[in-house]
Amino acid sequence: MNAKKISLFGIFLALAVVGASIKIPAVIASVALDMVPALIGAVVLGGRAGGCIAFFGHLLSALIGGMPLGPFHVLIAVEMAVLVWVFGYFYQKGKRVLGGVLFVVGNTFLASLPFLFIIGTGFYVGMIPSLCIGSLLNTILAILLAPSLSTYFAKRLHV
Questions:
Q1: Could you please report the per-residue DSSP string of the chain?
Q2: Which of 24, 80, 123, 150 could be disulfide-bonded to 54 (CB atoms 3.0-4.6 Å)?
Q3: So where does this one cross the membrane (predicted)?
Q4: Residue 146 confidence (pLDDT)
Q5: 139 contact partners, CB below 8 Å, separation of at least 6
Q6: What pLDDT sits at residue 158?
Q7: Mean pLDDT per 10-residue run, the chain (159 residues)?
Q8: Could you tell me the CA-to-CA distances from 81 to 48, 106, 121, 157 in Å, in that order?
Q9: Buried-exposed string 42-66: b where 16+ CB fall within 10 A, e elsewhere
Q10: How far apart are CA 108 and CA 27, in angstroms?
Q11: Do 138 and 35 meet the contact criterion of CB atoms below 8 Å apart?
């Protein structure tokens, strides 16, 4: 990774912290906009970098929110990294909508699935609406902003 990409990675991570501070009230805890920079980072820098931004972005979001699920946030951060990588993979292949749908479905239903067994059905079902709204907001914003930002960085920074 060259100096320009490292700097850009840092900017996206800082934006993830800002997004983590933008909380949307949820049934249980809250949902944040920390994944928008990670999803855009996956488009601009590639899926692995976007996944790293998602991992650290989620942990920072959870930390700002008081770590309501304790060490389970590490599991969620890993899931977010994988989902952002998948989004980036399909986006790079020209299948933007499919990448977005997989991110929303994965974040809403699959990533929360371990909590069905760990915490219980009530928690799982209670989180679905909030996760769906948060996933949709993050994904829609990323899909709307990514084309312009990727063009900007490709032309001006030669990334």
A1: --HHHHHHHHHHHHHHHHHHHSEEE-SSSEEESTHHHHHHHHHHT-HHHHHHHHHHHHHHHHHHTT-TTTTHHHHHHHHHHHHHHHHHHHHHTT-HHHHHHHHHHIIIIITTHHHHHHT-HHHHHHHHHHHHHHHHHHHHHHHHHHHHHHHHHHHHS--
A2: 80
A3: 72-91, 97-119, 131-154
A4: 95
A5: 35, 39, 87, 100, 103, 104
A6: 66
A7: 87 92 73 91 95 92 84 94 98 96 97 92 89 93 94 75
A8: 8, 12, 25, 25
A9: bbbbbbebbbbbbbbbbbbbbeebe
A10: 14
A11: yes
Q: How far apart are CA 34 and CA 84, in angstroms?
A: 12
Count Cβ atoms below 10 Å from residue 76 Cβ, excluding itself. 20
- The whole-number pLDDT of residue 20 equals 85
